[in-house]
Amino acid sequence: MNSPVVASEILGHFGPYGGRFVPEALIAALDELDAAHLAAQHDPEFQHTLNELHRTYTGRPSIITEAKRFAEHAGGARIFLKREDLNHTGSHKINNVLGQALLTKRMGKKRIIAETGAGQHGVASATAAALMGLECVVYMGEEDTKRQSLNVARMKLLGAEVIPVTTGSKTLKDAINEAMRDWVTNVETTHYLLGTVAGPHPFPSMVRDFHRIIGVESRAQMLEMIGRLPDAVLACVGGGSNAIGIFHPFIDDVDVQLIGLEAGGRGVETGLHAATITGGTPGVLHGTRSYVLQDANGQTIESHSISAGLDYPGVGPEHAYLHDIGRATYRAITDDQAMNAFALMCKTEGIIPAIETAHALAGAIQVGNEMGKEAVLLINLSGRGDKDVQTAADYFGIPL
Amino acid sequence: MATALDQLFVRLRSENRAALIGYMPAGFPTKELCIAAIQAMVDGGVDAIEIGYPYSDPVMDGPVIQAAAEQSLSQGTSAGDVFDILEATVKMGVPAVVMTYWNPIERFGVEKFALEITKRGGSGVITPDLTIEESADWNNFTSAHDVNRIYVVAPSTGDLRLPQVTKQCSGFVYAASLMGVTGTRTSVSGNARSLVERIRTTTDLPVSVGLGVSTKEQAHEVAQYADGVIVGSAFIRQIQEAPTSEEGIANVRALATSLAEGVRR
Fold this sequence. Notes:
The structure holds 2 protein chains of 2 kinds. Chain A is an alpha/beta fold. Chain A has 16 helices and 14 strands. In chain A, the strands form 4 sheets. Chain A has a 6-stranded mixed β-sheet, with helices on both faces. The model of chain A is unreliable at 1-8 (pLDDT under 50). Chain B is α/β, with parallel strands linked by helices. Chain B is 48% helix and 14% strand. Chain B has 12 helices and 9 strands.
């Protein structure tokens, strides 16, 4: 039987969401990309190349760690961490980047451009470009280049050009605007290596397909480790790529709750947040229809989060759909809740998570306490926190 | 029913010249000065006006229009202001259309937006990021309320797709002269002429060329093969670069006068 979700995915739509809202100039390139992706999905040689890269370069399959001491603070539920932080470059982002870089070569293009917020996707893109001999330009909001200067240096070491974006709010959304302008201009030679499950079709489906490996692996790993599926799967949601990657293979397992944790910033009620599903309304941003933080005139509202990687006023259209049909639920985690969970993970498990990921960990504390100690929770530990040491030190008042 | 824009193209065809279409973002540099700038464009000989709905994420626009939109939005320009400026423009006696990214229309209400255009005397709407795949509601409501819907086609629009897009258009077809964002260019891309020729094999509608036109010479060149010449960033720059708003408005009028000579063959 077809999954209701998959069956609805027609022409890049997820119910009323998704689609393409882009200048006509990009349609040919999106069609070309869609065709290349579909062909690659059914090409054993492409799949073999990607799988071998993941095995010998990314470090897949990533392991699962049971977090027993952390679980004591989460109502005693059993908590399992899918360790995407152990991937090469330190987050799940590499899964998508290697896939799209291979597609870039397949399409005969020599240049990739990417946007980045926290810098993780930029670093992953620069890495893939170095590995495959592609030219790489990364657009990054000027604010973010300051917040994440270490990642700017990493990208430059890897041979990428980093262009600070000084328009608008000078963050991720403006970096995407600038990348799209570059793409409209250079589309014949350039692939836009979009880093999340947003943007025009085929990006939401394609990026999801490259991240599904997270869920496919962890589903099998859970069955092997404890002989059953988890009661809930949790992941942080900015654009939503790590979340859809781990959620998607569980969608037909109707007894498994799927819970996305958005960035509540200073609290959704303050207006200073990035919780797009929790606090936004349906609209169009960056080429796709989904939930958007917007005002009465349809202008995008700036988002706020301590985590640069979640600081985005949109969200992937498939998440919007999963929310509307009730298959997944989304809650907001404040900066303070995330940072408490961050500290707890450091001290109870010896794992420094990305602040993005800390939102999922804070969600696990809530959900664990609600579901009790019989519950089994699977958390996507989407990234490591090395890049966040400065922010965390500032937050906790640790002198550097 | 023919809109004022439809009637303009019929008239200019008999005069054997192209239309000069000028773009100005609503509320730039202020609401009052925006109306003054549009009046200066009309006084200088601009035949039709595109009023830009300033948007927070203008991915089709280069730095000039981005800066103008930001300046307008910083003063709180709303949908109501856009429609007020549309109405003021129509009262100057020229056809006027709104150019907007899609989200403001969806937020305002798709049918409501089409109705408001008619109510304020506007002729149509240019939607640069609405693809034909997403346009069913818009097509229905614009047809029902006699609003010209103007889609943009690009040099990369393939031969199969081109007639599918132009079939949805009314008023005119907007031909983007090059692959890129708005802004002045030193020369108009050679792609423009061949794109216009390709469009003409698919439709009898007038074809207007935009992106990169800023001088009388460029306007004259484009007017040889297109029915309309669209100028945006060059007008905005007159205001951005002038030391006072009075001088900026005067420069807008002078540019309009010069371009208007250019479109006469």
